[in-house]
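quick one, 51 residues, struct below
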Amino acid sequence: MEAVIRVIPRNDFSLELWFDTGDHRLFDTRPYLDRGVFTRLQDINLFKQAS
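---
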């Protein structure tokens, strides 16, 4: 199973993710920000703390 080894939160509420397999992907979190516990991440300052 691949593991995330690096995360960079971006100003557009997406995450740059690097995996131990060498893959680099962009994940758009915006579709999830109005659901359950993820609503707290609508605060960009909190979102930028992702690691």
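The chain has a mean pLDDT of 96.
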